[in-house]
Amino acid sequence: MSTPSTPAEAFEVLLKGNRRFIDSTCEHPNQDADHRAALVPGQAPFAVLFGCSDSRLAAEIIFDQGLGDLFVVRTAGHVAGPEVLGTIEYGVGQLGAPLVVVLGHDSCGAVTAARQAAVDGTSPQGYIGDLVEKVTPSVLAARAKGLDEVDDIVDVHVERTADMLLQRSPLLAGKVERGECAIAGLSYRLTDGTVRRITGHGPLEV
Question: How does the average pLDDT of the chain come out, rounded?
Fold first, then answer.
């Protein structure tokens, strides 16, 4: 299988991999010893995957990819700070990935905690509180649209995260504007393994 070179090709490869995962027809590509050895000199992933740290959201598994295919960044609630933005920029700017995926999921614990904090006016202790604080604007934005269910808030949070990447990163914005990169916002369904497109920026269609 050739490595995708355009945003649309990369997006299509991910969606096809997810379909194999759903259908239990996974090919487990690029996981043999020869491929592992071939990657030693360097890497050229075709997508940056920025997702939630939830243990049920293992990117290479749910998209049926292998070593060297995905440049993965994960935080609880896919919360992005400078380190995350720098890592994503590295994947696109230095490694040449033509696609960035923001991956949320239903029943997200970080979103649930932020929603609860907004309801009762309290926040978890320690750094978890900082994380919840960064998700809270998405809770408030969802409420402004009349949405209060956790999964609806997740969709808003995915959309806002994708928008934020463009707003805060001139590197990403420039590449998307030139058609060299695209950003896709997806939500993963825990029960059946499907991904649903929430938003997108750039050339995602073949």
Answer: 95
Per CATH, which fold does 7-201 belong to? Answer: Beta-carbonic Anhydrase; Chain A (3.40.1050)
* Residue 144: C-alpha distances to residues 15, 139, 148 (Å): 32, 9, 9
Burial class (CB in 10 A: 0-12, 13-18, 19+), 54: buried
Neighbours of 118 (CB within 10 A): 19
Stretch 2-23: mean pLDDT, rounded? 95
List CB contacts of 25: < 8 A, sequence separation 6 or more. none
Query: Where do the structural domains in the chain lie, given as residue ranges?
Result: 7-201
Indicate the pTM of the whole model. 0.94
- Tokens for 73, please give them: 């960044």
